[in-house]
Amino acid sequence: MAKLLVTGGAGFIGSNFVRYLIGHTDHTVTVLDKLTYAGDPTTLEGLPEHRMRFVQGDVCDAGLVDGLVADHDVVVHFAAESHNDNSLSDPSPFIRTNLVGTYTLIEAARRHETRYHHISTDEVYGDLKLDEDTRFTEQTPYNPSSPYSASKAGSDLLVRAWVRSFGLRATLSNCSNNYGPYQHVEKFIPRQITNVLEGIRPKLYGNGLNVRDWIHVDDHSSAVLAIIERGRIGETYLIGADGERSNKEVVETILELMGRPRDDYDHVADRAGHDLRYGIDWTRLRQELGWQPRYRDFAAGLTQTIEWYRSNEAWWRPKKAATEARYAAVGQ
To answer: Which pTM does this prediction carry?
Structure first.
């Protein structure tokens, strides 16, 4: 049994990881979360108090972070500003949280010789051409295209430098696009699902041909745990599940699964700097750690996600109106 500190553990991916830990291990967890608009303590409701405690605070608060890191065996750093559209309108929170916050954590982990795992994104690699067969690997050069992805690229490089310069006991993972329960309704898949549930036609950026590599959040969680348990210190592991789909395909699949015509959606203006395609080569994860995803069937994972949103309107509905108002203000 280990004591894990999970930053951003009240957010979408972090809270699902906490739930996965509680359900699949004997570890205890402390969640550190600032509770910005994307953090929600209700994502942690129902978890046993003797296994999980919550601390509201900022990863940039050096005193708070130092005390928490000193009292834990492993730090798992999910906390991040992560919405591309928001980074285009105001990059400053992304610089502070994603860069200064990471620096604060790795300095504390270095002082206390604490095992550290860094959660990142495939967006640090930029994008791929729609008509090529290549995928991102651990050796792909960084080429971020938004303030969000640039700030995550910078945080990755900080961790790598601390491993080399100071012997930080760290691993990193870059994951493809997650979907599943507890995801904020501003994100692509839950926005479309909740639109259909409210009788609103889904919205599709541009021509909808941009491709993302989708992975169910439970598969992300199991992969992160495998890396913490068996990953080689200093190494980066790409997490994917062969889930490449165009945004058009995703919307049409959602509509079909929810009993609506596949063409029952509207096109809206494309996002500035919209990356064309992401694709993850997760060979290292498979070969070195023996990891396999559970949700290889995208439609099955999407069905589970749709049913969760259908059954949990009380969780997402209070956020929906404000989210749609923000999108409407910019014509999206």
So the answer is: 0.94
Distance CA 191, CA 174 (A): 24
Catalytic residue among 33, 58, 81, 123: 123
Is the CB of residue 121 less than 8 Å from the CB of residue 180? no
User: What is the C-alpha to C-alpha distance for residues 318 and 283, in angstroms, rounded to an integer?
Assistant: 41
Domain, as residue range, for 33: 3-178+216-239
Angle at 214 between CA 172 and CA 95, to 5 degrees: 50
| 148 carries an active-site annotation | yes
Residue 146 within a domain? yes
49 within a domain of the structure (yes/no)? yes
Question: How many CA atoms lie within 13 Å of 3's alpha carbon, on the beta-carbon side?
Answer: 10
Question: Is 122 known to be catalytic?
Answer: yes
Q: Is 256 a catalytic residue?
A: no
Residue range 154-205, pLDDT digits in tens: 999 999 999 999 999 999 999 999 999 999 998 999 999 999 999 999 989 8
CATH of the domain at 35: 3.40.50.720
How many other CB atoms sit within 10 Å of the CB of residue 186?
19
For 116-148, how does the pLDDT look when each residue is reduced to its tens digit (9 = 90+)? 999 999 999 998 998 888 999 999 999 998 899
